[in-house]
Design brief:
117 residues; mainly beta
Length: 117
């Protein structure tokens, strides 16, 4: 008897601010190549409004802002750079969310997100 493993995904986020203006925001979601051996812990739940025949990865990409809220408390790295000139200055701040391994289960019109430690 074989047990079917859940599909695991990896989430990461990068926000770049230059001179107090948001220059870019990137959210990455992809399938994990290697499965985790640890036990997942529930992080959040949100409405399951998948379209007919929509794949899980496409649903997650469509809900990327909701996923970002789910992973607010996850570890982040901040890079800060500034340069001062005689008449002006330049600053850049990059906020990166470290890659998070997670799985999604669909149950009674809800998507349940669980992360691996």
């Amino acid at each position: 008897m074989t047990i079917k493993a859940d599909t695991e995904f990896i989430f990461s986020h990068k926000l770049c601010v230059e001179n107090a203006k948001v220059q870019s925001e990137q959210i990455y979601i992809s399938k994990a190549m290697v499965l985790s051996k640890s036990i997942p812990q529930k992080v959040c739940t949100f409405a399951d409004d998948r379209r007919d025949g929509e794949k899980n990865i496409n649903f997650l990409r469509r809900k990327k802002k909701t996923l970002l809220k789910c992973f607010q408390g996850s570890p982040k790295i901040v890079y800060s750079y500034s340069k001062n000139y005689i008449n002006s200055s330049y600053s850049q701040i990059i906020l990166k969310t470290l890659p998070i391994r997670f799985t999604v289960k669909f149950n009674n019109h809800f998507a349940i997100i669980k992360t691996y430690k």
